[in-house]
């Protein structure tokens, strides 16, 4: 993490339990302003739980979360309101803020303009992911958490969306927390990453460093990493 | 340490319970004897409903319809001279057969649709009973049902019916335990959790659903048959929609999916109602006090139990006991599973 | 033909009453996932409150309006108890609403006694050609149509309505937007209470109510509501009309003793037909 | 006493209870029966047949000598088999004729039978020249169905022809189709057999539809439970009642007028309203039992013998139970009343009969 600046999000020693099962066990994590951070790990490692806890959907059993700004989440599986139009979906994203103008999102994703009256449920997965990102942006977040950006999408679409995110981060200084099973993608576009396994942070550090770590290569990158 | 000893302790508990059950009827005061019969009958119906809701994830708001069908199927032949004991067979069999027949189309409906379907079914059954006067005695009711018996052996007193009833309770619980532990039983649990997952795993979902529906109807039919002989009078008014709702309440209060839950639910609800009635009919109670008291207190008990123990009494108790044991024994997967099941079940309704 | 139209009119009239009761079920279920067994209670309380206000000399219209406002507040209280602590499962909530319905019996008996009440609404008939309808029923049909239009506009066009729809569509996503699903649930209960109260103040002149009339009222309303899967107001309206018209036709051309049974069977058959066409009906 | 203190019939049962308590109080204040006081235990049947049996078992277990039954006929019919078994005198306040036809040795009833009421109504129709009559009955209601059946069986004797027969079920709320039929049939009057909210709804819709023929109700509607919610629409409706309901209009020559005046005065002082039919039933049931005990003794079989030889004048008329007659009241105890300003007033037809003591 860059020295000096106070991080946007700090998570200290977080513990989350579902009944008898422990989902998160002493997790520490931080995201600085204007930073792009990846959270990588296998299915069921606790990635989504961590996001939900930070978003306030799940109550922690122990630990501390400090969020110095607004957070918006793009949930796994998009979770649009399928029977509502694209535009209504976007507008609902602005529930917390007063400004419900959808213009900025259309500027970012011009393709959505022609879809604005369509029911969200009738869109393709890629289009839905655009709406989901757009809906989160309507909440004017300082930190955008994206849960499984690439899930179920064609590679070209993932690339386009990833470029959009990088663009957002560069231009507006919006911090992004990218939660991914696709470690290759995540390490490519983020500067720093955490690896979570069975509810604990197993590794963390700059993407470069993790990319060359033998464990990561074996577990997440399918052997030797090629540039 | 506790593991190996647990089964024998459990057997001991069951044996003590069984002995108490057997010893109780003759020493109970008279009004408690018929109450004892009703608790048993309600436990049988509730057990079927629990099985249906807890293990097959299906809801019935019309379980009293099968209770009624069982009662009429047992009573009508007996009134016409058939040996009354035969009714203990015709009651459950006819109820189960009708459930199987209507289950095939009806169980295509799910969740609330099925709840409505069963409710509508009960209203239709009640109309049929009221209109088929020649067969059923119509709304006036069917009277002169002979006492249960084989040859010279007749059950007449509440004590005798208490034994008949609790024998039936035991049989029903044993059947239920076996069903729950059998391979189909595990498949059923899968059904309640996720129907599509169960189907994907090769469980014949539709057939199992109909079977559980028929089994639960059979239980209700058996209880209905005993009810008919015990009261020797049945009428559509004996099987209102409110009775179906009462069964649902018993299942929810006791806890879904638990054999013991149905017993506890039936006993708690019946006893609370009875206690309130006793208090309400104390001398010197002003006119409207009995009604106000019984409605208000019954409602408050219901609300408080469901808010504090949303998964029912028995699952809450087992969870607590398991938590206490957790220090001694390894993880309690079962409990976590039960909690998860209870919350999943709640999404059924 | 006139006879047929007469039965049709009668069916639309009673169907509208079922539909009006159904709206409350729909609004509450749509947002909270709770089938509110106390829905009939709002109608009963609405009737009793309007009765008391009318007897206290409050003018017609105002009395009913105030009664509806009070039932909205009662709806809020019912919601507070029924939704309980956050995360109370819907089955528990359902049993709690049942408990609240029974509790209302104690309240009604304490305040108003156990005798049935009624008051005068619009009297006389509206006749067009050979077909007539009681004026009070005309009022109910009108109220039902207005209510359904208003609900459709509210849920479809207003921001608040869309937020409520979002809660019913995907609670998790709604919460991620920052929508307080629990508060929205309370709001839904208040609206449901008002709609139930509205049904009650309009129905009481036609059929007397007593403390336990809620069951009959709720069963018909539930039947109408379920037709639209408890979430679609317009199909619930259709459900009410199917039920009402089927009953009137059975009573008109066959025997009224079978009207409820046959009407319910018709609804079941339609639902099964829908289920077989669309595959298993979604929950 | 078993009665419905909760459930659908609580309004009836509560008044049964008040009536019986008043009788207990009067008898005990007057020194009891042969010096012994009456101890009345009242249990709820929740308007449910099975609860009635549970409550009955408790009473018998407590050693009661006689039981007063529920105004819910389902409860009464459920209890009768056990009454037969235990041989405990049982005086029912329910109106279903089937309780006493055929005669059960230990079962008696206080309300007038539907057959008696039906005959009286037919007399009235004949006297008024109403020969073509329509009927609307609730086929999901035991009382209504029995009442209608016995009336239909006797109609020919009085030259009354039921030219249109309409039914309704437990949940009918819109009677337009039935009333349309009645209108088209050309009937001179509409007779209704039902209980509960149905008759109120019929009355209101009947008025709105402007049928312009007399509306006639059975004795189930002879109380404020019907007259109050029906309100202005009930004006001029014809209702069959017992003597007690028209108590204030009884000519002093009538045997029941004095006891009725005394009973209703006490009741009104205590409860602030005129006693409904059900209060008379509860009151009479205990009076009949007390009278039997006084004459023949206090064991179950003595009470049964006493009841079978009763001749007791009560606010509902004079009961004359016998070995073959366990309902006791006769045609002279049924009044055809008209509702005026919410009150039940004897029709001219009945006023004349009351004067003659018939």
What is the fold's blueprint, element by element?
The complex is a heterotetramer of chains A (227), B (349), C (283) and D (358).
Chain A: E1 9-18, E2 21-31, E3 36-40, H1 47-54, E4 62-67, E5 71-74, H2 86-92, H3 103-108, H4 125-138, E6 143-147, H5 155-172, E7 175-180, H6 183-189, E8 192-197, E9 200-206, H7 207-211, H8 214-220
Parallel strand pairs in A: 3-7, 3-8, 5-6, 6-7
Antiparallel strand pairs in A: 1-2, 1-4, 8-9
Chain C: H1 2-32, H2 39-55, H3 62-83, H4 90-112, E1 125-128, E2 131-134, H5 135-157, H6 159-169, H7 171-176, H8 181-203, H9 214-227, H10 233-253, H11 259-278
Helix pairs in contact in C: 1-5, 1-6, 1-8, 1-9, 1-10, 2-3, 2-4, 2-8, 2-9, 3-4, 3-8, 5-6, 5-8, 9-10, 10-11
Chain D: E1 2-3, H1 10-29, E2 43-44, H2 49-61, E3 67-68, H3 73-86, E4 90-92, E5 107-109, H4 114-128, E6 132-138, H5 142-155, E7 161-168, H6 176-185, E8 189-193, H7 197-209, E9 215-217, H8 224-230, E10 238-242, H9 257-271, H10 277-296, H11 300-308, E11 312-314, E12 317-319, E13 334-340, E14 343-346, H12 348-356
Parallel strand pairs in D: 1-2, 3-4, 4-5, 6-7, 6-8, 8-9, 9-10
Antiparallel strand pairs in D: 10-13, 11-12, 13-14
CATH topology group of chain B:
ABC transporter involved in vitamin B12 uptake, BtuC
- What is the CATH C-level name of chain B? Mainly Alpha
Low-pLDDT regions of chain A: none
H and E order of chain B: HHHHHHEEEHHHHEHHHHH
Number of contiguous helices of chain A: 8
Number of domains of chain B: 1
- How confident is the prediction overall: mean pLDDT of chain A? 89
Largest sheet of chain B: 2 strands, antiparallel
Q: Cα distance, first to last residue of chain A?
A: 24 Å
Helix-strand makeup class of chain B: mainly alpha
User: What radius of gyration of chain B results from the CA coordinates?
Assistant: 21 Å
The greatest interface between two protein chains, and residues involved on each side, is: B-C, 51 and 49 residues
The rounded distance between the terminal residues' Cα atoms of chain B is 41 Å
Proportion of β residues of chain A?
A: 25-35%
**Average pLDDT figure of chain B:** 81
Radius of gyration of chain A: 17 Å
Strand order across the biggest sheet of chain B? 1-4
Low-confidence stretches of chain B: 1-5, 328-349
CATH superfamily of chain A: P-loop containing nucleotide triphosphate hydrolases
Assembly state: heterotetramer
């Amino acid at each position: 993490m860059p020295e000096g600046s106070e991080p946007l999000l700090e998570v200290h020693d977080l513990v989350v339990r579902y009944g008898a099962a422990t989902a998160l066990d002493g997790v520490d994590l931080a995201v600085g302003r204007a930073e792009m951070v990846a959270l990588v790990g296998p299915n069921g490692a606790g990635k989504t739980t961590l996001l939900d806890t930070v978003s306030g959907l799940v109550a922690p059993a122990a630990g501390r979360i400090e969020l110095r700004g607004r957070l918006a989440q793009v949930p796994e599986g998009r979770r649009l309101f399928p029977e509502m139009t694209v535009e209504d979906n976007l507008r609902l994203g602005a529930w917390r803020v007063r400004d419900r103008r959808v213009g900025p999102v259309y500027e970012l994703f011009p393709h959505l303009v022609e879809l604005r009256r369509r029911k969200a449920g009738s869109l393709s997965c890629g289009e839905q992911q655009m709406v989901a990102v757009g809906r989160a942006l309507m909440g004017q977040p300082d930190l955008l958490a994206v849960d499984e950006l690439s899930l179920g999408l064609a590679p070209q679409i993932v690339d386009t969306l990833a470029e959009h995110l990088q663009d957002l981060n560069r231009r507006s200084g919006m911090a992004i927390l990218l939660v991914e099973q696709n470690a290759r993608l995540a390490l490519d576009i983020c500067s720093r990453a955490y690896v979570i396994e069975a509810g604990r942070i197993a590794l963390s550090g700059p993407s470069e460093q993790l990319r060359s770590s033998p464990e990561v290569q074996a577990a997440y990158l399918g052997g030797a990493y090629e540039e | 340490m506790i593991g190996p000893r647990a089964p024998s302790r459990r057997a001991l508990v069951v044996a003590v319970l069984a002995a108490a059950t057997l010893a109780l009827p003759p020493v109970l005061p008279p009004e408690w004897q018929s109450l004892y019969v009703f608790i048993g009958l309600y436990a049988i119906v509730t057990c079927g409903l629990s099985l249906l809701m807890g293990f097959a994830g299906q809801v019935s708001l019309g379980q009293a319809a099968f209770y009624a069908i069982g009662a009429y199927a047992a009573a009508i032949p007996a009134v016409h001279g058939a040996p009354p004991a035969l009714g203990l067979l015709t009651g459950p069999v006819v109820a189960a057969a009708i459930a199987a027949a209507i289950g095939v189309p009806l169980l295509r409906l799910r969740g609330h649709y099925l709840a409505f379907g069963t409710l509508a079914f009960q209203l239709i059954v009640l109309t049929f009973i009221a209109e088929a006067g020649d067969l059923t005695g119509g709304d006036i009711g069917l009277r002169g049902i002979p006492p249960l018996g084989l040859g010279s052996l007749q059950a007449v007193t509440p004590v005798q019916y208490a034994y008949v009833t609790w024998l039936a309770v035991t049989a029903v619980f044993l059947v239920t335990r076996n069903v729950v532990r059998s391979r189909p039983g595990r498949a059923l649990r899968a059904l309640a959790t996720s129907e599509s997952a169960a189907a994907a795993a090769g469980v014949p979902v539709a057939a199992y659903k109909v079977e559980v529906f028929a089994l639960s109807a059979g239980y209700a039919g058996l209880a209905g048959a005993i009810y008919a002989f015990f009261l020797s009078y049945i009428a559509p008014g004996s099987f209102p929609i409110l009775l179906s709702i009462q069964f649902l309440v018993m299942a929810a209060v006791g806890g879904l999916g638990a054999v013991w839950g149905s017993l506890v639910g039936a006993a708690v609800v019946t006893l609370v109602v009875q206690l309130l009635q006793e208090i309400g009919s104390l001398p010197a109670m002003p006119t409207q006090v009995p009604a106000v008291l019984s409605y208000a207190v019954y409602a408050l008990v219901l609300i408080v139990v469901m808010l504090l123990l949303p998964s029912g009494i028995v699952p809450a108790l087992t969870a607590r006991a398991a938590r206490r044991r957790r220090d001694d024994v390894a993880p309690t997967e079962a409990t976590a599973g039960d909690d998860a099941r209870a919350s999943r079940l709640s999404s059924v309704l | 033909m006139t006879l047929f139209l007469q039965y049709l009119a009668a069916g639309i009239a009673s169907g509208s009453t079922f539909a009006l009761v159904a709206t409350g079920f729909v609004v509450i279920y749509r947002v909270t996932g709770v089938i509110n067994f106390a829905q009939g209670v709002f109608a009963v309380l609405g009737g009793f409150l309007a009765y008391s206000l009318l007897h206290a000399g409050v003018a017609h219209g105002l009395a009913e309006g105030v009664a509806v406002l009070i039932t909205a507040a009662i709806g809020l209280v019912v919601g507070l108890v029924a939704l309980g602590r956050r995360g109370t499962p819907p089955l528990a909530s359902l049993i709690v609403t049942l408990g609240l319905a029974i509790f209302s019996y104690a309240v009604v008996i304490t305040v108003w006694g156990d005798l049935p009440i009624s008051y005068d609404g619009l009297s006389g008939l509206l006749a067009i050609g050979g077909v007539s309808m009681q004026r009070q029923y005309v009022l109910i049909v009108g109220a039902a149509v207005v209510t359904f239009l208003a609900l459709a506009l509210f849920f479809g066009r207003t921001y608040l309505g869309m937020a409520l729809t979002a809660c019913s569509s995907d609670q998790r996503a709604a919460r991620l937007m920052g929508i307080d699903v629990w508060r929205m649930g309370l709001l839904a209960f208040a609206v449901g209470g008002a709609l139930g109260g509205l049904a009650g103040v309009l129905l009481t002149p036609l059929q007397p109510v007593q403390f336990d009339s809620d069951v009959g009222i709720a069963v018909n309303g539930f039947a109408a509501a379920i037709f639209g899967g408890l979430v679609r107001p317009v199909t619930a309206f259709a459900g009410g009309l199917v039920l009402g018209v089927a009953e009137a036709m059975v009573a008109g051309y066959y025997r009224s003793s079978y009207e409820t049974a046959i009407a319910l069977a018709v609804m079941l058959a339609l639902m099964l037909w829908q289920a077989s066409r669309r595959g298993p009906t979604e929950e | 006493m078993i009665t419905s203190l909760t459930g659908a019939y609580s309004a009836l049962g509560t008044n049964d209870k008040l009536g019986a308590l008043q009788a207990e109080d009067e008898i005990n204040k007057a020194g009891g029966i042969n010096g012994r006081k009456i101890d009345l235990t009242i249990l709820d049947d929740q308007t449910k047949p099975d609860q009635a049996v549970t409550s009955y078992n408790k009473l018998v277990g407590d050693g009661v000598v006689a039981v007063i039954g529920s105004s819910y006929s389902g409860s009464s019919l459920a209890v009768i088999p056990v009454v037969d078994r235990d041989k405990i005198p049982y005086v029912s306040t329910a109106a279903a004729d089937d309780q006493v036809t055929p005669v059960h040795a230990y079962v008696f009833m206080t309300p007038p039978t539907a057959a008696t009421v039906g005959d009286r109504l037919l007399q009235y129709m004949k006297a008024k020249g109403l020969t073509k009559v329509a009927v609307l009955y609730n086929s999901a209601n035991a009382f209504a169905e029995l009442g209608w059946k016995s009336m239909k069986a006797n109609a020919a004797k009085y030259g009354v022809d039921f030219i249109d027969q309409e039914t309704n079920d437990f949940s009918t709320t819109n009677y337009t189709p039935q009333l349309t039929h009645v209108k088209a049939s050309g009937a001179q009057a509409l007779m209704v057999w039902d209980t509960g909210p149905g008759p109120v709804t019929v009355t209101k819709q009947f008025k709105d539809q402007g049928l312009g023929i007399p509306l006639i109700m059975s004795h189930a509607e002879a109380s404020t439970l019907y007259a109050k919610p029906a309100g202005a629409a009930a004006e001029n409706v014809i209702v069959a009642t017992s003597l007690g309901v028209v108590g204030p209009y009884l000519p002093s020559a009538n045997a029941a007028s004095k006891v009725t005046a005394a009973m209703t005065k006490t009741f009104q002082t205590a409860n602030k309203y005129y006693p409904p039919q059900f209060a008379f039933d509860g009151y009479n049931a205990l009076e009949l039992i007390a009278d039997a005990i006084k004459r023949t003794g206090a064991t179950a079989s003595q009470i049964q013998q006493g009841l079978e030889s009763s001749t007791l004048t009560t606010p509902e008329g004079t009961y004359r139970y016998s070995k073959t007659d366990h309902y006791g009241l006769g045609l002279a105890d049924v009044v055809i009343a008209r509702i005026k300003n919410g009150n039940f007033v004897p029709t001219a037809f009945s006023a004349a009969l009351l004067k003659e003591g018939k």
